[in-house]
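lol forgot to send this yesterday, sorry. struct tokens for the thing we talked abt
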């Protein structure tokens, strides 16, 4: 179980760094809003973060 938690944490940190490198401060704000929304079970904040991330992903394509 602890190994799975470490792997998941490493993947989350890696994804966060990728978003920050590719999409800048707005990407990290969106990622934090999505993470906080999920952890707090607040669908509005999580949805806002998800929408911003989708808009950033669509803009780069």
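and heres what i got for the seq, position by position
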């Amino acid at each position: 179980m602890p190994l799975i938690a470490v792997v998941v944490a490493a993947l989350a940190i890696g994804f966060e760094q990728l978003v920050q490198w590719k999409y800048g401060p707005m990407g990290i704000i969106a990622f934090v809003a999505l993470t906080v929304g999920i952890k707090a079970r607040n669908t509005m904040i999580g949805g806002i973060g998800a929408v911003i991330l989708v808009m950033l992903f669509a803009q780069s394509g």
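The chain has a mean pLDDT of 86. anyway ping me if u want another try
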